[in-house]
Fold these 2 entries.
Entry 1:
Amino acid sequence: MIGATTPAPTLIDGVPAVVSSRFGVEGGHTIDGYRSTGSYKGYEAIRKALDMGPSAVAATVKDATVLGRGGAGFPAGIKWGFTPAGVWPRYIVVNGDESEPGTYKDRVLMERDPHQIIEGCLIAAYAIGAAQVFLYVRGEMAHAQERIAAALNEAYAAGLVGRNILGTNFSVDIVLHWGAGAYIVGEETALIESLEGNRGMPRLKPPFFPAAKGLYLKPTVVNNIETLSNLPWLFNNSVDAYRAIGTDASPGTRLVAVSGHVNNPGVFEIPQGTTTFRELFESPIYGNGIRTGHQLKMFIPGGGSAPWFFPEHVDLPLEGRVIGGEGSMLGSGAIVVMDETTDAVRAALRLARFFARESCGKCTPCREGTTWQEKILQRILDGHGRPSDIDLLLDVGDNISPGPYPVASDAAKGLDAIPYPPKQTTICPLGPSSVAPITSAIRRFRDEFDAKIVKRNLIPVSVESFEDAPTLAESTDHGADTHV
Amino acid sequence: MEQTPMSEKPLPTVVTEPVNITVDGEEITVQNGELLIEACHRNGTYIPRFCYHPRMNPVGMCRMCLVEIDTGRGPALQPSCMIEVTPGMVVDTKSDLVSKVQDGVIEYLLANHPLDCPVCDKGGECPLQDQAYSHGPGESRWVEEKRHYAKPIPISETVYLDRERCILCDRCTRFAKEVAGDPLIHFIDRGANTQVNTFPDEPFASYFSGNTVQICPVGALTAKPYRFKARPWDLQTVESTCTGCSVGCRIEIDSSRNHVLRYNGVDSDPVNWSWLCDKGRFGFESLEAADRLREPLVRSGETLEPASWAAALATAAEAINAASPGSIGVIGGSRLTNESAYAWAKLAKGVIGTDNVDAQLGDGLPADVVFGLPQATIDEVCKPGGTILYLGPDPKEELPVLYLRLKHAVDEDGARIIELAPAGTGLTRHSAVSLNYRPGELGQLVDSLVSGSNSTGENAALSTAAKLIAAAGDSLTVVIGRANLAENAQSVVAAATAIRDAVPGVKFLVALRRGNVRGALEAGLAPGYLPGRVSLTGGQDDQVAAFKSLWGNVPAKQGLDTKGILWAAAEGKLDVLILLGADPLSDFPDRSLARRGVAGARTVIAIDRFPTASVVQADVVLPAAGHSEEQGTTTNLEGRVTVLNQKVTPPGTARPDWMIAAELAWKLGGDLGVDTESSELWAELVASTETFAGAGVDALADTANADGIVITAEPRPLATVEAPHVSPTSAYSLRLVVNRKLYDAGASISRCDSSSALAPAQALRLSPADASPLGLKDLDRVSVTSPNGSLSARVALDSSVPKGTAVLVHNLAEADPGALVASDDAVCEIRVEVG
């Protein structure tokens, strides 16, 4: 699954490798490898941070504008500041339940550079005053779990985690927790429920904002694996060096996972906000072109939940605000490229089925609606579609996320860009996520839907005489249409 | 309040911090911070809902209560069951968007819901059905195959689950986890395949499982006793009170064609919050037991033969007339209504002239103690942040809904319980401190807790408990009762008086177990007392004289209690023993004395519903009406008087107890002064006592008093009682604890089809520390010997039983611990031998 990984230069095409510098290094996942290879020396950053004091550490992260890499892109420094003063204990929960369709960047970080995550955890824990960090790793990622477990053992043995770290009075425990395999647990409140030993179902915000009422109803910061992986480089270098990469609004780099119909799929570290999709697809150091002999039909710019983009969007930069303005999102950094051989209906079904199966079952619209969408799409693909099914699909989606749904804008087709996120009748965005690919597919490729439906409904019916009374099949079909 | 699809009422909320919000354009004043759905409901705007239940924490699952809320940043769709009101909030519950998404939710819920309403028990009273009409789109666009599961599956002995009908609202699962504390049902799988189920091989064996049937918003959960018995539109309903135990939960009785078919809990805020235990909920089954007494019986040689009422009453009257008043004893009365209890007190003490009258069976507390302690209500005991000293019976087994209230007080309201018990109970895990004492040594433990003596320093739990009690001061409440039937009541009484003396302002909830035992005592069915706590010997000459003129006569001196009556009978000094719904052969803790007493009385007259062990030994048997079969009032353990309503007619010629008393009085040449209605008796009782003065017929009929009226009376003088002196245990003996289980061989519960099989097997519960020297393991058979008798039982190792103590359950089908117990002993010492 993981494609080519870049060897370990400190610069990638002139850009510093912030988090990926040990991806190609043999032994980079060990404590010795972490200390001796890569773009910075391991476990030096925590030393510097401990000298600075917690508030200076927090200020550094805030000044550097380290954006969250889990999907929403919220600045980590500001998120840390939401924890109410004077309420103890407080926790850091690291979200390693990476399961958005097409996303596998955190997995590579966990497998190839676990110490970088651990050091990031230490810095974050020191900054907010947490004595306990929970590293929640997706259930299916056995290799990542083993690598992190081994790394934690090394770090504990080296006195870098545990009591009196590096001889200071700073102590923190990092607990590795294996998930049981559920997409919904990537949602932070569901992750917290799961950590508490309950069934992973999201909590309603408000009142359960994790920063105020999180794990065990105590202040909790939930950060993504990649977000924390940025911290060691930041503290080894400087705020200015960090901000020099990428754009002003989105400094630093980010990992993108490119999959699908490109010649060289893989995880790439790119400067935020400057690289365009075209570069990403075509540059030899990234995707190295759409599959030879094929053309781009559509692509998902930010994970299975994101509205689709089309060839006219390839010159957009990977910058959250720009993409949001165009009606989609960068989300988890998963880019799925589909060429003209892709059946839009089947692609929509594939995603709809994922969301239907991963719905936790808590909110009625998501539980029933996602399954309904899957069934309708399956029916259309099976040749049993009805002309009313397209409106039905759109309305089923509308009852999960009412109102105009974000679509990838297309001036040629008269489609306006509507910013993410949509209104929703559910607690978390899982339900609305299922609507995005379906709406995208219908808006752009309605002809493909119509073709499948019309084909099925070409029942020869003559109404010239009573002998040609409606067939059983026809009357059944009619009945089904008005079935209550 | 108009009829709404969900039967739950809004919570009774007192607005102490008013804020104004706008709902559908109208400004209303509500309590700051209350849930929006509650605020709207109380002010007349019903927001549809499925998962929300006012007595449980909201989860926001069903999404039916979505409304548009604007708190200054524009309207947003939010679940009104989870949003707390804030000043100035603007709410639209009927906007186009709200209507559309509510339509959507109904359509989604009905997508997989079977349309089997015509054969569904819930059809006609179904919130899904009702809200599909009131808020749904009217038709569905779902053409796919619906979800299928095996239907229904039993999840316990009484509850069936139909997963096809389930809409996954989390009500039953939340109830099981949060309210009952029995998290035995849960969601499994995910997405549209999410289902409620039990864990493999672990049934939903909760004492409270029936509540899930009541709160299920669809027909997914049904109860065996009601399945397919009626359609809701054929039911007639009256409100009443459950008398299965003394908590006095408010219920609705549903009947059809003169058969009681169902009890449902009513949300009575001071008492049961709509919850019932399964014993109470399904207890109506015994009303139609096959062996229910339907006609009078008179002994003819070895057998009881049917007789006319006239003949049976004449036989009874003849026996009574032939005996001197002092040789007549009356045991029982706690099954009776207040009116019947008063009628029998008047008959026994006024007409017959005996004071040998006792509503309790040696397993309660003396009337002096019940009347002598300052009283607390359940609400006072369960007040937020309160401290509760609990030294009563296991509430989960004996007073289940009181257990739910105590659990809620601890889990949600920050109350703290200090439990003193001879062995672990259902309350132990909810207690801040649980201290075990050796049987007979409660007094010493209480002394060290309340006296502040320094002996607490060595024991951390003891000193924590002492600190909690000291910190509570006069807000301390005490629940007191008989945790152990193998000890006499003296140690409990000593503990109660010690606490009363040491903690000024302390209040007590006396946890006597039987349905209307409190009412029976207050109505005069106690030795030495006339109705209204008037003591025959306590210097209340004016009141005694008043009763003498009202009744024509009163006993001259205090008579015997149940133990005394049985002793007298056993010694051949009792001519007539009247069993007023009492079965001493099953219930009196000392089985040997009970047997000798019932056998020794020359004539036994039994008034009962069932042919119990004692009844079949009687000479005259008079069939009595039961619950739901007579009109009247009852008094719960707090002293709360509520109305009992008649819904069906008694079987055969059975009649209310007061009517039997009136007839018997007539035969004896007296007159109880009642003509046609029991309310005449009630009026007389209310008029002649201070205790009941505020609870007249009109007051009880006032809807403001729907939760009943708590009778109040100054505590009577109660002398401090010394704790019994118990000699040290011999090294080889254990001290016996006899307690009760919810399901046992009791007269009613053993006649309920759905519950009779739930009685546990008898086992001698031993600490592993005591079992290992004897080489005992689970299920080994042992012989248990006390100075009074012996029995054979199987062993169960139980680490919640302290070393030196052994536990048996009262009144199960086998291994009757009554054989070991002598009613006079402060403790019962037993020897356990293998084999």
Entry 2:
Amino acid sequence: MRTFPIIKFVILFIIGIVVQNYSHFSFSELLIVTSLTTLISFLLLFIFKDNRTQFFTNILFSIVVIAFGALLFASNTSQKKDIHFKTDWIKGVTITGIVTEIELPRKNEFRFTVETDSFIINQQNKQKVKKKFLCRFQSTDKDERDSIYENLKSGFEVSLTGNFSKGKEKRNPGEFDYRKYLNQNGFAGTFNILNTSDFIVLNNNYNSYDDIINSIRYRIYLQISKLHNEKTIGLLKGLLLADRNNIDYETKTEFINAGVIHVLAVSGLHVGFIAIIFVVMFGRFHIIIRYILTIIGLIFFLIITGAPPSVFRATIMAVLYLVAVITNRSSNPFNILSIAALVLLLINPSDLFNPGFQLSFAAVLSILIIYPLINSWISNSKLPIWIKGLLLFMGVSLAAQIGTLPLTNYYFGKLSLIALFSNLIVIPIIGLLVANGILTLILSTISISLASIYADANHLLSDLLFYFVKLSSTLPISFIRINDFTIYDSFVIYASLLLSIFVIKNFFSITLKVVSIVLIFFSAYFFIRIDDKPLLSEGKFTVVMIDVGQGDSFLIKFPNGETWLIDAGNATKYFDSGDRIIAPLLNYFNIDEIDCAVVTHMDSDHSGGFKYLFDKIKIKTLYKPDMDSNKTYDLKFEEYAKSKNIIINYYRDTSYSIAGTRIYFLNDTSDDYFSNLSENNRSGVIKIVHGNVSFLFTGDAEKESEDFLLKKYKDFMKSYVLKVGHHGSTSSSSPAFINKVKPEISLISAGVNNRFNHPSSIILNRLESVKSNIFRTDIEGAIILQSDGRSVSKIDWKN
Amino acid sequence: MSSFVKEIASSTLDVILPRTCPGCSVKLLPTEKILCVDCLNDLTPAHESNITEEFTKHFEETKLITGLFSMFLFEKGEAIQKLLFSIKYERRFSSAFYMGELLGEALLQYRAEWEYDLILPVPLHKVRLIERGFNQANYIAKGISSIVGVKSSKDILYRKRYTDTQTKKDKEERKKNVQDAFKIKSAIEIENKNILLVDDVITTGSTINAAAGVLKLHGASSVFAASIALA
């Protein structure tokens, strides 16, 4: 530490950032603390030149650095406040501002960043808004997109008309919080532009440095696209330009499951490959010239990848290492890692909370700490040399995985068990792809036909890679799911790891080592369990009102673990609730089988999401209204369900029991009045009784149906929890019905700012008049209610 | 002015990338070059008796080299091993050059009678050269050359066969390992020349004997051998 002051500095600096993240001191407070402590420590240093006050000056200097870290972080985050608009999205907005960054084009759009100075809603009401927006140009005409893209330069002043959105919040358990993601990256929201006419360049001054980088990136991208097929383009664009937007979500999930997602993020691994390629390429030169050329090459690679944290980290480390070698200085890896961290954090202190930053540094740090232990075990063993080599290679992978485990658990919610083996194959393939990819690009400047031969090798390699990753991600033992893994849990794991390393290094007896480590992880397990709160407890009756926007969907888990799904939200060309919301939610809850699906009625906002679920999830039985043979949609729906071997039942006035609960279907199809009602009114009405509490689901049933139910079932309609009919519309929930049901809790599923104005204030007042607690998806997102048979409690899933 | 800038640059570099002693990892003082004073004083000099003993053991019989010189005794776990390791594995090639300078001065002092007109480093195989990035013996040779004023060349003698590392082998294995390992690129350059062969460590002499044998075969009139350390 004495020899390497930077290590100490970085640790204190990071402490400063973390403290500020939780304490939120004001900028001026921190400024005062920083300048005062600096002043005092210098005074002390000058007044007492001997060592008497060294202890105090050391402490003071530490405070200076901590305060400095906090100060820098405070000044960095103070500009990034959410935009203050009441609504989450606004149509027909015109913004003017400067284009600051331009991404490479994607399949159906291209994206760029605009720092605005004005914000005009509906050509009036001009506001001064100094914010960063993520703009997306989405014209359906590819030629139009390309022509705008090729003429756009960073630095242009533009006027854009389109739709503003704050970004989708986390509204269901396990969902990605896009709004938080945008805010963390400094964006106030997204801005979608659909037509070329909405894109006006006001001033075409541009930043020539950015322009050069952008055009190099674009040209490399075009060259890659010219020579390769779709999948390989996505891969090479990711590997060489650090832009993995052309790799689809499903493929990324496969990479996560196989534990090799890190190869898709350009990281130290790639920088290492690039460095090796350069060192070998310049092998003829004198060592100093060779290293200087390599440094230049690495910096070029850094610039064209747009310098994401992991590449920046690895490049700084490689360059410092080479500088240390050239100047005959210490190449202590911990010191070099600290300098890399310091540079990154000085430029952007919020990087500390960037998953890429954390994973990158955690991986290197754990390789530095854990790998030497593994290395010494393997080297001292009496195995054949090739097995040793193989084990050493796996050892690096294992070390990195141990160190990043708490982070991958936290961010991906999965623990890949196959990673150790899949990396063994995947890493060499990636190395070959990077090398051959660069070679292909260089050759393509000379001869396209020659380059296309090399491109074929890339196709082969990428096919091999995708095939292997798919294979290893689908093995039953490839990964396990880890839910509610918190930051606190990560700390517990890291503390246990450090303790174990201490034990391994300092204890001599093997038994003592083993016993201590078992004890450490045993207690870690307890500490991790402390804050666990399973959202779907065993032995209880749980209802999840899933936020599918404007529509209905309820997941029910019975005390015996049986699962039902009542309705599945809407599916349009642009958004399929089954695909985007329900399947990920089921996945998050580790549910791969639904015992019974219930379609209350065939309206698309209730039945739409089912088609996707039929494909992806095993559904045993299905309840639905009698088929209306006049409707092709209904016909096709049933045919599709039958083709998936789902048993179809129609609503009848029946009841049966599941694990201490009783389920009543209240639709009396034998009744003439009832069977002639409208489709909404013939919605499946289901009452579930669990001990003293009961839940009533009414789909979109309206007054007419409610009248019928009241007449037929009378006091039986009284329920503890009511799913309010038809999203809280005035067509349902008549005063008589509400007074009879008298729900303690009312659930309303409606989209945020939906165009039907659901739920109606009249219905809300009516519910309040019977003192019902109202929970709405448009306000809170998903709602989870849990019953133990005596009472119902609401589970807070957000924290 | 430029010296001032240089000083600022080097003192800044001292903070972020300090110069450390390979022997004890402590930060070096500006006056210390490669090792700190303590580690430098800890190095055990090779006395004439050690050198003679080594010579009789490994070189007398083969009669391939005329003279032997070494500065230090190689000791496991001590500063000398750490220094040589840092040269090889931390790629501190400037340390090799500096040690070469020391060796050159020692040669002038203790082997003034040696007359040689070419310095040749013991070569590395190409694969190992790529892996390590440089040949430490070459930098030692360059260091000697800068002091004694005799030309050194890395291109005349080369390794044609990839040999395993010698580190964990006994004498017989070592000998077998390096037999026929060396070749000469152009014999004219060594014909009737007196050659100083340079390596970092001399252990069993197998490498030196093999290299000297090839040199002699191609017409070198005499071969001397020098190294940083004797093991």
